[in-house]
Amino acid sequence: MVRPKKHLGQHFLNDTNIAQKIVDCLDKQYYDVCEIGPGTGVLTSPLLNQPQIRKLKLVEVDKESIEHLNNNLKDDRLTIIEADFLRINISDIFTSPFAIIGNFPYNISSQIFFKVLENRNHIPMVVGMIQKEVAERIAAPHGNRTYGIMSVLLQSWYDIEYCFTVHENVFTPPPRVKSAVIRLTRNNIDKLDCDEKLFFRVVKTGFNQRRKTLRNALRPILPNIVQADNEFFSKRAEQLSPAQFIELTQVVKSMMSENG
Question: Structural domains in the chain?
Answer without folding.
Answer: 12-186 (3.40.50.150), 196-258 (1.10.8.100)
